[in-house]
Request: fold
Amino acid sequence: MTTLDRPVITATLDVPGATLTYDVRGDVQSGTPLLMVGSPMDAGGFAALAAQFVDRPVVTYDPRGVMRSPRDTPGVSTPDLHAGDLHRLIDRLGVGPVDLFGSSGGAVNGLALVAKHPAQVRTLIAHEPPACPLVPDFAVIKAVVDDICATYQRSGLGPAMAKFIMMLSQTEPLEPSYLAVPAPDPSMFGMPTEDDGSRDDALLSQNLQSCTGYEPDFAALWKASTHIVIGAGTESTGEVSARAAAEVAKRLGVELTMFPGGHAGFTADGYGVPGDPEGFAAVLRKVLDR
Reply:
C-alpha cells in the first residue's frame, strides 16, 4: 500500500473556544495511532513524515487558531490550553494510549499533556521543545521575544518575523548586547516590508511568548507512565530550541536523541531548508519500536 491508497478522513471537534480540524490516515483500530503535532505548524507540515508510516494509523491536526481550526475569541493560547485540546482529541479517537510526536511548540504541548494525562500517551517524542526558562540566557531570550511580539503589534509581520528568524539562527547563548543589535531588513529573509494591517498570525499573536516561557512540570513527568524521548536535530547544535531540548533531557535523566536535519528536519522542504523525512522517520521508528 502507498500513502495515496490510504483512506484519509477529515473531521472536526468542538473544544472550549475553538473548533479543531484533524485528519486520520488509516484505521485507528488497526494499531497504535501516531499523533503528529506542531504549534503553530498545521497538519500540512507533517505530510511528508506521515507518508513514511503507512503501516500504522497517523493523526494530524491544525492547532486552535491555525488554518482550518478557528478560534471563537482572540488571546493567548497557552501550552496547557493546547494540551487540553489534545486530551479531547485523543478522547475523540476512542483508542489509546497513542504515540505522540511533537515538534517545537507541539513538543511543549505534548509535555504539558503527559504531565496532566499520562495514561493517554504510550510514547512521547518531544523534538526541540523551546522550554526556554531552562537555559541560562532565558532573561535575554524573554526580552528578545517580548520585543518581537511588540514589533509585530507595532509594525506587522515582516519586521517581527525577521527578528524571530535572526534569533533562531543564533548558535551561541544570547548576551545582553544582543538586545542592541540593529533590526534586520525583512527582505533579507523573504519577508514582506509593507504592513498589511493584519494581526492574526498564530505564532506572533497567540503562541510565541507562552510557549517559550513554559517550564515543564518535571515532578509530574518523572511519575508518568509514558516513555518520554527528547530529540534535537544534528544541524541545530547551539540554537535556542536545541539547547532547551538538551536541558529538558537532562532534567528528565534521559539521553538526548539526535534526528537528521534541523528544527524542521522531518519536512519535505524544511520550510526553506531541505529536510530528510525518510531519514527522520527511520530514527523515529527505532525510538517507537523500543
Observations:
- Strands lie at 8-15, 18-25, 34-37, 58-62, 98-103, 121-127, 227-233, 257-259.
- The mean pLDDT is 95.
- Residues 138-155 form the longest helix (18 residues).
